[in-house]
Write a structure and sequence with these properties.
By secondary structure, this protein is mainly alpha-helical. The protein has a domain at 3-81. Helix content is 59%, strand content 0%. It has helices at 3-14, 20-23, 30-38, 42-51, 55-65, 70-81, 88-95, 98-103. Helix 1 (3-14) packs across helix 4 and helix 3 packs antiparallel against helix 6. The chain is flat. The two termini are 15 Å apart.
Length: 122
């Protein structure tokens, strides 16, 4: 789900055209979730994209090198689609986690607010 967007960001980064708003979170957030699920490092993906001419070559590399069970793929997809978590405790845990705090530096509101979270669009 996220791989095409991540590959686009890598290509923009390699060309020196990735918008500055994306620099701090490049390789983090949803990128990092995909990397962790795939068992690949950010630097590995940059090298794969750098050596590819078209996105199909990246997909071929992923198919050949990322071996995950159907259950693992399904768990990753569910985790991605259900961000943030649906119950208040899990959402609070996620939003106070070091990983989220690292990527949310620019998302701090100057006032208390009510936050609406959406589980999915199914």
């Amino acid at each position: 789900m996220h791989l095409p967007r991540y590959v686009d960001k890598i290509r923009l980064h390699l060309a020196g055209k990735l918008h500055p708003d994306y620099h701090a979170n490049f390789g983090k957030g949803f990128d990092a979730m995909w990397l962790k699920a795939a068992g690949v490092t950010h630097d590995q993906m940059i090298e794969v994209v750098k050596k590819s001419f078209i996105d199909g070559q990246v997909c071929d590399w992923v198919r050949a090198n990322v071996k995950r069970s159907a259950a693992e793929k399904r768990a990753h997809a569910e985790s991605t689609l259900n961000r943030p978590a649906t119950d208040d405790a899990a959402a609070q845990e996620f939003q106070t986690s070091p990983e989220y705090q690292e990527i949310a530096v620019d998302r701090k509101a100057g006032a208390d607010a009510i936050v609406l979270t959406v589980r999915s669009f199914r």
